[in-house]
């Protein structure tokens, strides 16, 4: 976004040199106001995988690696007709459905260089470590992170995004019936990603919403696809093979109890999340052993959920992309039976 050099406007000078045309006195000129026709909506897109669900785990900036994996699907023209995600996985899912490879990468790599995204200064000014007011909608409105809403609408894929109601303890899963406008969609994505104490929450349907990882599945979204009747799952996680969540330390437990003292449902969800996540992970491994799930796990995870260094995030993205290319034959066999 650079200012263009100004040129001297010689329009007036040229107009003075040019003879002026005149209308005959008896002539009348009818001026009609015209309204530009709105752009026609895109024709419906086609997907080529209909019996497998794409399931995407969150993990904040660990999604830089996940995005590299997902972009291999887009590059190879692998368009899955059902996509679900939680937290950062919701952002990756919507980028995938909009078939935007550039945004898929930028959301968790280049965007980290934008000072409005968040950081310690944002946290101290009570905007959250991740500035949710900016990161989901305003960054689209100011043009720094455009979203291809037209392609998202034209894609017939079913979309599922999960969030957690802070004051009822209810897990909520939204579909396209809650995504009529871009603003609706970004509200769902933001709600699904709202980590307690790190991001400012919003209300949807009169309920304060928190990160979907506090709800059913504890962060792994495969149950969403299973509840919708899918027998085959293509699951992308943000943790390497063998990972298990450890017990919360006494310090973390006290911190959760103190910060969430007025919100018992959210407090309990946070305190029990490690155990629930490990149980869901064991279930996912059983699905994998039975042949119902292909689970794509990072070979390594070089970044954390709060990494802001663009070079480190770029490295994670490239590792994910490299892994996706290497594993592509295995993916194709599962998805297409090739």
Number of strands: 8
Fraction of residues in helix: 40-55%
Mean pLDDT: 87
First-residue to last-residue Cα separation? 46 Å
Outline type: globular
Low-confidence stretches: 1-36
Q: Biggest sheet: strands, sense, closure?
A: 8 strands, mixed
Overall SS class: alpha/beta
Q: Write down the secondary-structure element order.
A: HEHEHHHHHEEHEEHEHHEH
Count the DSSP helices. 12
Radius of gyration: 24 Å
Portion of residues in beta strands equals 5-15%
Organism: Tractidigestivibacter montrealensis
Domain PNPLA: 54-226
Motif (GXSXG): 85-89
Biased composition (Basic and acidic residues): 1-17
Explain what you see.
The chain has 338 residues and is α/β, with parallel strands linked by helices. 41% of the residues lie in helices and 12% in strands. The chain has twelve helices and eight strands. The chain has helices at 11-17, 63-75, 88-97, 101-106, 120-124, 132-141, 149-154, 182-193, 222-227, 250-259, 264-289, 310-336; strands at 52-56, 82-86, 158-165, 171-174, 202-204, 207-211, 232-236, 293-296. Strands 1, 2, 3, 4, 5, 6, 7 and 8 form an eight-stranded mixed sheet that branches. A hairpin with a 5-residue loop joins strand 3 and strand 4. Helix 3 (88-97) packs antiparallel against helix 8 (182-193). Keywords: Hydrolase, Lipid degradation, Lipid metabolism. This is Patatin family protein. Residues 1-17 have a biased composition (Basic and acidic residues). It comes from Tractidigestivibacter montrealensis. It holds the Pfam family Patatin.
């Amino acid at each position: 976004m650079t200012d263009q050099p100004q040129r001297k406007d010689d329009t007036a000078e040229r107009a003075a040199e040019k003879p002026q045309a005149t209308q005959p006195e008896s002539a009348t000129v009818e001026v009609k106001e015209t309204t530009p026709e709105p752009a026609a909506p895109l024709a419906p897109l086609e997907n080529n995988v209909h019996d497998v669900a794409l399931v995407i785990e969150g993990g904040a900036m660990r999604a830089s690696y996940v995005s590299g994996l997902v972009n291999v699907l887009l590059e190879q023209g692998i368009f899955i007709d059902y996509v679900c995600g939680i937290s950062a996985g919701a952002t990756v899912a919507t980028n995938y459905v909009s078939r935007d490879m550039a945004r898929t990468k930028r959301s968790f790599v280049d965007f980290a260089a934008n000072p409005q995204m968040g950081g310690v200064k944002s946290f101290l000014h009570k905007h959250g470590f991740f500035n949710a007011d900016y990161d989901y909608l305003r960054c689209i409105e100011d043009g720094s992170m455009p979203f291809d809403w037209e392609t998202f609408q034209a894609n017939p894929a079913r979309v599922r995004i999960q969030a957690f109601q802070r004051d009822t303890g209810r897990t909520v899963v939204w579909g396209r019936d809650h995504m009529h406008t871009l603003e609706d969609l970004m509200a769902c994505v933001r709600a699904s990603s709202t980590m307690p104490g790190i991001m400012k929450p919003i209300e949807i349907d009169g309920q304060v919403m928190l990160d979907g990882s506090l709800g059913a599945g504890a962060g792994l979204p495969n149950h969403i696809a299973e509840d919708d009747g899918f027998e085959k799952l293509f699951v992308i996680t943000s943790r390497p093979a063998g990972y298990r969540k450890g017990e919360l330390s006494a310090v973390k437990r006290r911190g959760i109890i103190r910060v969430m003292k007025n919100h018992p449902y959210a407090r309990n969800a946070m305190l029990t999340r490690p155990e629930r996540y490990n149980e869901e992970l064991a279930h996912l491994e059983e699905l994998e052993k039975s042949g119902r799930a292909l689970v794509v796990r990072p070979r390594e995870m070089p970044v954390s959920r709060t990494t802001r260094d663009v070079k480190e995030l770029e490295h994670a993205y490239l590792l994910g992309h490299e892994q996706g290319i290497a594993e592509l034959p295995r993916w194709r066999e599962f998805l297409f039976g090739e």
